[in-house]
Amino acid sequence: MTVSSNDQHRTDPSGVLNLLDDLIAKARAAGADAADAVLFDSASVSLAQRLGKTEKLERSESGDLGLRVFVGKRQAIVSSTDRSTKALDELVERAIAMARVVPEDGFAGIADPEQLARSWPDLDICDSEEPSSETLIERARIAEEAALAVQGVTNSEGADAGWSRSTIAIAASNGFAGTYGVSRQSLSASVIVGTGTGMERDYDYDSKVYGADLRDAAEIGREAGERAVRRLNPRRVKSCKVPVVFDPRVSRGLLGHLTGAISGPSIARGTSFLKDKMGQRIFAPSITIVDDPHVKRGLRSRPFDAEGVEVKRRTLIEDGVLTTWLLDLRSARQLGLQTTGHAARGTSGPPGPAPANVYMAAGKRSRADILAEIKDGFYVTDLMGMGVNGVTGDYSRGAGGFWIENGQIAYPVNEITIAGNLKDMFLNMEAADDLELRFGMDAPTVRIDGMTIAGM
Q1: pTM for this structure?
Q2: 3.30.2290.10, 2.50.20.10, 3.30.565.10, 3.20.20.70: which CATH number matches 13-217?
């Protein structure tokens, strides 16, 4: 099913688009040459329990809106949680006064009418059913009990269950008006094994748009317990240079480093290690990476971007070659390009590029086949610290996981650092065939040869 923006405007049961239209009309009447506005209405419930006792059960509701006005090439942004007529009149007055005194920005502005999304698919990203508190409590109970039942587990850090739903509305003086809802349900468990200085911890987690799509609570608990048990009695290893294999739980973080490096503002400022790499091979030829905002029930799916611009599936890396930047309107104008429909924003700041559902396509070989060739190597399951330099690509992070000997997982390892440079890491990367689309940024098991291990 496809929904047009005009249909959305006519079927506005909560009146949020009418509210934004009125706000924009007031801004135009007060002297704004152009304006746009965003609104978020959200509700959430969070539950935490530990050792069978509920430690937290909280519900929160919030509503916030933001107005951006343009006076010539000057822009100002104001936000408010008060939607009374008096408060909105004052909001407009403050925004216009601010816009008249700030410096000009030659690249700022709303979208041209031909850039706007006129229709969009039904992405099924909002579950209308809110789970009861009893349902959340039961999920957490099952997960924690399953984790504690794993032999070797000695304590629990608890289980958490949550739900949230938000309405997002965007309108602008160029004629765009659109609204959609998003929902999330989540469940996690974290447990401890061992005693004294020999304690280790691990967790498992799942998040979905629909509660019915969540993994079984007992499965999440068991996986948390089994992961923790496998970490018992870790060893240290000597410093060396070996192949490093990233578990899917951490390999998706490599996609975050890529999307940050190809973000329009970083390219425009010249502060990215990939600033001169457009059209060049920056990954191994076997690697393809996709950004798709139209994944059904996707955690990062969206029908249009935060500037009302049409969004579509894009291949960021095709056979190892960089094909596009991630652009909003402003960064696109800076670079003399067209927006790619990646704008995201809150209520108190301007738009900026952000990816949608990003995934690395599955490779052709299995995880077992990739491991089988490694005489000595390191299998990463956890990363710590933020030692990544976006300007140079230098990469250095604390890590934990397992040593690989003769193609097999041999024993747990912790207190080491893995290091390299993302330019080399990308070029020496191989993806396994075990991709699962779970979190909105996903990758299969990934092998990278030639990384440095700093150990004993």
Answers
A1: 0.94
A2: 3.30.2290.10
